[in-house]
Design goal:
Number of strands: 11
Strand order of the largest sheet: 1-8-3-6
Strand content: 15-25%
Largest sheet: 4 strands, antiparallel
Radius of gyration: 19 Å
Number of helices: 7
Shape: elongated
Length: 218
């Protein structure tokens, strides 16, 4: 897969604009757990070739909460937020799996975005989508109980991984949801007692997907 496959508007860019992206896009391969961007750094635009990235925020107390994930062909704009003066997000981008990606310098992307209406519009679409995900997350935190949020998370993970046995610790789930490990442990034990999951060391196996869906949907 080439970097241009991450840009649906590639054919609407000029030859010079395409050449600048290709000339400056740096290929990187990172291992699971690698932090690619932290805080207010301006790392550059991240374009995912393969693998999976996680964007999360970190509180002063050290608690994490996942904002969104990035998969094949996804672009991460908040890692290059310096190119948009009105937007400042202190987020962390970490590889959830071994990942291959391209890093495009923020200044190069900003220049081309100012020249190209199609690229500017596409960038705005991505930004709007990310903000929608963050607003959805806020809605979950404010209005949904923790048992429903954990049920939704387990169902999302089985869909992403394509398996029912998830290699996840209670601490990992807590970090995704912005809560305490003890809360997750208590909820998962309840799920197990109800026959919805089976717990083992470092793993959660989904046994009754339909009941989890019913719980998620209230």
């Amino acid at each position: 897969m080439d970097v241009q496959s991450c840009f649906p508007v590639w054919d609407q860019l000029t030859e010079d604009q395409r050449a600048r992206i290709l000339d400056h896009a740096a290929s990187r391969s990172v291992k699971k757990g690698t932090v690619l961007h932290s805080g207010g750094d301006c790392t550059g635009l991240l374009a995912v070739r393969s693998g999976q990235l996680r964007a999360y925020m970190l509180s002063e107390e050290g608690r994490e909460i996942t904002l969104y994930r990035l998969f094949e062909r996804d672009l991460c704009l908040f890692s290059a937020s310096c190119m948009m003066q009105s937007i400042q997000f202190d987020i962390t981008i970490q590889a959830e799996k071994d990942t291959e990606l391209w890093v495009i310098p923020a200044e190069i992307y900003r220049q081309i975005m100012e020249e190209s209406a199609p690229l500017s519009n596409y960038t705005n679409e991505i930004m709007a989508g990310r903000f929608s995900e963050v607003m959805w997350l806020m809605e979950q935190i404010m209005w949904k109980s923790m048992d429903r949020r954990i049920a939704a998370f387990l169902l999302e993970e089985t869909a992403i991984e394509g398996v029912r046995s998830l290699h996840l610790t209670h601490e990992t789930i807590a970090n995704h949801l912005g809560t305490h490990r003890e809360v997750v442990t208590r909820m998962l034990r309840y799920f197990q007692n109800e026959g919805m999951v089976r717990l083992s060391r470092g793993a959660v196996e989904v046994l009754d997907e339909e009941r989890l869906k019913s719980l998620r949907d209230g």
